[in-house]
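Researcher: Sequence recovery benchmark, item below. Answer with residues only.
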């Protein structure tokens, strides 16, 4: 139930190869590899690490896994884009609502409709609908 979070700077582990007594460092070095060949070099003769490399290679060659991975990435991108659009729309809606609120207050205080239009960016027609 208890767990710890460690922040690890992986560049510090780049190039480390398994030598028999540096398993943790070698495993972290696996994350820096850019090819299956480099993964195998890092793993050395560590059987567990070699199993990991074999599984990664198998998954990399599996079209279904690659397709599922690509779909997951695309879905995340679409969700982030939709959130961004929603955020932008919300800002625009909020700004417009504020303009209308200001216009109503100015009109209530008998400020000229032309000045209110110029000040808020709302058209005279829009302002006439507020009155």
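Model:
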């Amino acid at each position: 139930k208890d767990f710890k979070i460690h922040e690890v700077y992986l560049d510090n582990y780049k190039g480390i190869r398994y030598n028999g007594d540096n398993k943790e460092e070698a495993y972290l070095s696996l994350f820096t590899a850019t090819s299956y060949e480099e993964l195998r070099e890092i793993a050395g003769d560590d059987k567990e690490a070699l199993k990991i490399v074999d599984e990664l290679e198998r998954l990399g060659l599996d079209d279904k896994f690659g397709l599922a991975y690509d779909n997951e990435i695309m879905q995340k991108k679409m969700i982030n884009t939709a959130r961004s659009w929603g955020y932008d729309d919300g800002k625009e809606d909020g700004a417009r609502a504020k303009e209308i609120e200001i216009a109503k207050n100015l009109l209530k205080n008998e400020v000229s409709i032309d000045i209110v239009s110029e000040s808020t960016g709302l058209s005279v027609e829009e302002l006439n609908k507020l009155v």
